[in-house]
Amino acid sequence: MSNSMQGKRGLIMGVANDRSIAWGIAKAMHEAGAELAFTYQGDAFGKRVQPLAESLGSKLLLDVDVTDDDSLDAAFAQLAQTWPTIDFLVHAIAYSDKSELTGRFINTSRKNFKHSLEISAYSFIDVARRAYPMMKENGGTLLTMTYQGSNKVVPNYNVMGVAKAALESATRYLANDLGPDGIRVNAISPGPMKTLAGAAIGGARKTYKHTDVNAPLRSNATLESIGGTAVYLASDAGAFTSGEVIHVDGGYHVLGMPQAENL
């Protein structure tokens, strides 16, 4: 995939630190030749993201709150001033109250349900609507991140499972909406990852270990493997892939129960 993104420009949303899935994707995109811009939310995350972005030759950083229309409008207006068009956008944004990512799903609060769905699912639609004018002439790729808790019960994943189900459905509807303009929309579904977001889910370490020893490949995904998948989807090699959820989880999603030695 060397140089497969040469001449392409894209926005990476959701880098929190150097263990973020979005960072793994950003590195792979950069290595394939892409120019990158980054978003962050607030000064604290900005201080983390800036040196990472600069290490990939990027000085285009945008402060964005995806729950605020004015913030989103200002960020995309600023991006368009520098780059009138973009070729891809990576949406790796999700949130839920940590206190509700443990225990019983039935105890999900109305407030956190709305907040989780707004940030984790609706924000992809909101971002796509703003990216569309920058892609409609030449086509492009929108990518988001999901997890198999969207369609199977995962302990403690709770409301995030519902949010990811909505996100995957939004991916399919956006793919149909934007396809006539040559815009592809896909989701990547990694297995459990040792990220800041993943650590917020109750029992994260046990979940990571369980999938690591039971996946057909006997391994969880790496940031490099997820990044490589994103490069494929955003490059010309992925020209006819849209509306898909691509699993990068060592094959764990095909299992009906643990391996025999772990029963």
TrEMBL record:
<keyword id="KW-0520">NAD</keyword>
<keyword id="KW-0560">Oxidoreductase</keyword>
<dbReference type="InterPro" id="IPR002347">
    <property type="entry name" value="SDR_fam"/>
</dbReference>
<dbReference type="GO" id="GO:0004318">
    <property type="term" value="F:enoyl-[acyl-carrier-protein] reductase (NADH) activity"/>
</dbReference>
<keyword id="KW-0444">Lipid biosynthesis</keyword>
<feature type="binding site">
    <location>
        <begin position="65"/>
        <end position="66"/>
    </location>
    <ligand>
        <name>NAD(+)</name>
    </ligand>
</feature>
<feature type="binding site">
    <location>
        <position position="164"/>
    </location>
    <ligand>
        <name>NAD(+)</name>
    </ligand>
</feature>
<dbReference type="InterPro" id="IPR014358">
    <property type="entry name" value="Enoyl-ACP_Rdtase_NADH"/>
</dbReference>
<comment type="similarity">
    <text>Belongs to the short-chain dehydrogenases/reductases (SDR) family. FabI subfamily.</text>
</comment>
<protein>
    <recommendedName>
        <fullName>Enoyl-[acyl-carrier-protein] reductase [NADH]</fullName>
        <ecNumber>1.3.1.9</ecNumber>
    </recommendedName>
</protein>
<comment type="pathway">
    <text>Lipid metabolism; fatty acid biosynthesis.</text>
</comment>
<keyword id="KW-0276">Fatty acid metabolism</keyword>
<dbReference type="InterPro" id="IPR036291">
    <property type="entry name" value="NAD(P)-bd_dom_sf"/>
</dbReference>
<dbReference type="Pfam" id="PF13561">
    <property type="entry name" value="adh_short_C2"/>
</dbReference>
<feature type="binding site">
    <location>
        <position position="93"/>
    </location>
    <ligand>
        <name>NAD(+)</name>
    </ligand>
</feature>
<dbReference type="GO" id="GO:0006633">
    <property type="term" value="P:fatty acid biosynthetic process"/>
</dbReference>
<feature type="binding site">
    <location>
        <position position="14"/>
    </location>
    <ligand>
        <name>NAD(+)</name>
    </ligand>
</feature>
<feature type="binding site">
    <location>
        <begin position="20"/>
        <end position="21"/>
    </location>
    <ligand>
        <name>NAD(+)</name>
    </ligand>
</feature>
<feature type="binding site">
    <location>
        <position position="41"/>
    </location>
    <ligand>
        <name>NAD(+)</name>
    </ligand>
</feature>
<keyword id="KW-0275">Fatty acid biosynthesis</keyword>
<keyword id="KW-0443">Lipid metabolism</keyword>
<feature type="active site" description="Proton acceptor">
    <location>
        <position position="147"/>
    </location>
</feature>
<feature type="active site" description="Proton acceptor">
    <location>
        <position position="157"/>
    </location>
</feature>
